Amino acid sequence: MADETIPVETLTEEQAKAELQRLASEIAHHDALYHGKDKPEISDADYDALKLRNDAIEAQFPQLVRTDSPSQRVGAAPAGIFAQVVHARPMLSLDNTFSDEDVQDFVSSVYRFLGQLPDNSIAFTAEPKIDGLSMSLRYENRKLVTAATRGDGTTGENVTANILTIKEIPTELPEDAPDIVEVRGEVYMAKSDFLALNAQMEAEGKQTYVNPRNTASGSLRQLDPKVTANRKLRFFAYAWGEMSQMPAETQWEMVQVFGRWGFPINPLTQRLTSISSILDHYREIGLQRPDLDYDIDGVVYKVDRLDLQARLGFRSRSPRWATAHKFPAEQAFTTVEAIDIQVGRTGALTPVARLTPITVGGVVVTNATLHNEDYIKGIGNSGDRIRPDDHDIRIGDTVIVQRAGDVIPQVLDVVLEKRPEDSAPYVFPKTCPVCGSHAVREKNEKTGKLDSVTRCTGGFVCRAQAVEHIKHFVSRNAFDIEGLGTKQVDFFFESDDPALMIRTAPDIFTLKARQDQSLTKLENIEGFGRVSVRKLFEAIDARREIALHRLIFALGIRHVGETTAKLLARSYGSYAAFAEAMQAAGPKFGDTWNELNSIDGIGEVVAASIVEFFKEPRNLEVVQRLLSEVTPVDAEAPITSDSPVAGKTVVFTGSLERFTRDEAKARAEGLGAKVAGSVSKKTDYVVAGPGAGSKLDKARELGVQVMTEDEWLTLIGG
Q1: pTM of the entire predicted model
Q2: What are phi and psi of 646, to 5 degrees?
Q3: DSSP 718
Q4: Tens digit of pLDDT for each residue in 1-43?
Q5: Measured between alpha carbons, how far is 574 from 568 in angstroms, rounded to an integer?
């Protein structure tokens, strides 16, 4: 199983596979909360730590990079409140850097990719990273026709009516502008406007808002544009999407063009050539940060020349020619009033510190994650101490709290001088606080180390796990049943009335039939009503046909996140084929097991978890009842193009001489091919340069077509 306590440099390949699976699932979960719901539940620092660990493992084991890796995607699906807009060009996110060394590595990588010496000949722009909501404005014949949020990077939400209320955004462009223009930038709320809005809300006896970023995001998602107009939103332009004609040849000049067209551009942006000047500008902006009237969380560096940007190209979710240099997290002092244990869907016991309310970076925080038993003791995921021996976290302690974003913060350290004399070490529970079952930390058989997570062994008898499973089942990326939110699920789960109770997923789809035969009518219960009940039943019926990947994700199989579910759906095509294969894959090393385990992105740990799920009779019984109510829709066949390598899997090995490894991968992926790190039966081509070793041997053993670099270039058209 995955073990996040092991240092990356000591991971075995099997452990690395498991860790990458865990990280892919966990990061996808947090992406959906942040981008799709504006309700993140971990700090930016915690999120960044997850992505850094994922990147470090991928760097150590490049052959294990998953198709559902966080390094291969951006954002989350649009929320569905507004009409969807497919971006003409994807809106990708940026990789993050956190130190001077990271910035030096980024600059060096640009020179290295382009095959140039680091002689300060390449210019970079450096602009403040605005903490707002990404927006794409499309103009046709110089008139604003569409405004769309980033969404999942490919598809966003149409918020044109609300964008029209922002006076800073021009509705028409000058006559010299191209026929098609997509200007991209950040919608934000000024700090002064945010404070004035909160003062107004407080005077009217209404609930105040938490921070400018979420307020701006929520304002753009108002169904009534009049509400948006009253929020005084603002905009900075700094990028572009589709352009029928490029009006400039550099990043800097493009932004100046935006300014001439009437868009607000950030005055702190500079064009620089040396690492020292870039870092000096970063520090200068950091010093100005408290006095700015808008929130920023870093500085973005971009290669200035557009032709070099084109050569550098993109990874799957981010450009190689840009990075975001993040600022350190914000900190404050407060007191731990209590430590509560929350039980999640997988049985994980997570300690949460209840804090004396404290304002950190303009946000009042009352809770902080304590992660796990070891973290409370001062031990990190690597097993090394992250705080001195006596700096364990106790109830009553004064602690340093860090918040980097608008979410639940974490406790960094204890102020030992203020510890109460009668304080006692916190004793982590050995039983589940919900069902009373034993709570254990599983041991990795190979390393002998304990898992950092304590889990309830209650399984289906644990009400917390059962109710959390239903919440997962109806969540946005699973069945997405409107009207079955957290409060409603809790209500139905706790009910003992046969006409109302929902204890397993199939019960959702029998609710209306049970209601029709009962005298207990949901519409007569407080909190419901005739209209809301009708809409709930309509929402349930609308999900009686469900995409295969959504069904697989909704089953809640451990280690199977949304992107892994999509991978399984594409691989097997239909639920019948998927279920038959999973039940046949029980004996390891058989053909069916090997087929599952050889899917790029499915390692042994993930495969074993899926197989174990289908071996459990209670799981099969629940799934069978579910399938009597819903129909899975087969996965669509992959889209191909005119490219001769579209849909093909290629492996590059040896010392490539005609192009760098990065350029080869980028070119292949641009033509629709899939670049893998290892050779399997599903590999179509192996491109071998001098010094090719085991991968070449494996290709010959499997009969995979092997070609030289020249033959590869001939195949793809030079």
Answers
A1: 0.48
A2: -60, 130
A3: -
A4: 445 667 777 788 888 888 888 888 888 787 766 655 555 666 6
A5: 10
Give the span between the Cα atoms of 582 and 584, in whole angstroms.
Answer: 5
CA distance linking residue 364 with residue 199, whole number of Å: 15
CATH number of 1-73: 1.10.287.610
Q: Identify the active-site residue in 17, 129, 302, 471.
A: 129
Taking residues 89-101, what's their average pLDDT? 88
Polymer length of the chain: 718
Which homologous superfamily is 84-326 in? DNA ligase/mRNA capping enzyme (3.30.470.30)
Q: Count CB atoms within 10 A of the CB of residue 356.
A: 12
Q: How far apart are the first and last CA of the chain?
A: 44
pLDDT higher than 80, residue 676 = no
pLDDT score recorded for residue 52 = 79
Task: Using a pLDDT cut of 90, give the percent of the chain over it.
Answer: 40
Which positions ≥6 away from 478 have C-beta within 8 Å?
472, 550, 553, 554
Q: Name the band, by pLDDT with cuts 50, 70 and 90, for residue 458.
A: low
**What is the pairing mode between strands 180-189 and 133-140?**
antiparallel
Task: Identify the CATH assignment for 329-468 out of 3.40.50.1000, 2.40.50.140, 3.40.50.2000, 3.30.70.20.
Answer: 2.40.50.140
Sign of the Cα torsion 114, 115, 121, 124 reads positive
Matching residue, tokens 């996110």 = 93
Alpha-carbon 170 to chain mean position: 32
Report strand pairing: 124-130 vs 180-189: unpaired
143 counts as catalytic: no
Summarised one tens digit per residue, pLDDT across range 487-507 is: 899 999 989 999 999 999 999
